[in-house]
What we know:
40% of the residues lie in helices and 19% in strands. By secondary structure, it is of the alpha+beta class. It has one domain (3-225): Glutaredoxin (3-Layer(aba) Sandwich). Strands 1-8-7-4-5-6-2-3 form an 8-stranded mixed beta sheet. Helix 1 packs parallel to helix 4 and helix 4 packs across helix 7. The radius of gyration is 18 Å and the shape is globular.
Amino acid sequence: MNTGIVTTLFALGLFAGSALAGHTPEEHAAHMAAMAADPHAAHQGHSAAQPGAQVAFADVPLLDQDGRELRLADDLVGERIVVIGFVYTSCTTVCPVISAIMQKVQRQLGERAGREVQLISLSIDPQRDTPERLHEYAGRFGAGEGWRWLTGSQEAVDDTLKGLGTWTADYQQHPPLIMVGDGRSGQWTRFYGFTDPAVLLARVDELAAAREQHGHDHNALAQETHP
């Protein structure tokens, strides 16, 4: 196991035990090459944030880990605040860390997960990641109802990734990436690297606070207009 990965897991409090199997030098090299946008992101939980990300939701059918057909925009995002991770189950380097980060976000959210905040892990290897395989993988990370794992046809997943601005020609060279956004306001941020869960949760809380402030401003304006 690569010592940098282990260091990151311990730094984030995310050591996932058996979820991290051994990996080949080729797999490690491919993942590390994909981190050109932030070459130091794999250490000490550092990440690079890209706010103001442009997002479009492809109107295509996807399948969750229970085999249910879903539309990303209508059935999962809606007007929720959303955290999306990008993984594939045969990955043994970056992806288990991303999933462990998501696991800690789920734990910290508590009852807010699935009610106020939707967690999503989208497979970037749909040819191999069947719903059954995702179901087994999700169980390793204690995924609850508020954390959906998605796959689908290659075309549907590619269209979804392109709309989110996260598609890569070679899925094995995808960058470590988690997105946080608000389906209501359309504000999205991409976090590249191994982002500290506290940073992701802070962004979730910022979006929630912005909603609350918008509601207060709207009510105040209504009272001024109709005294």
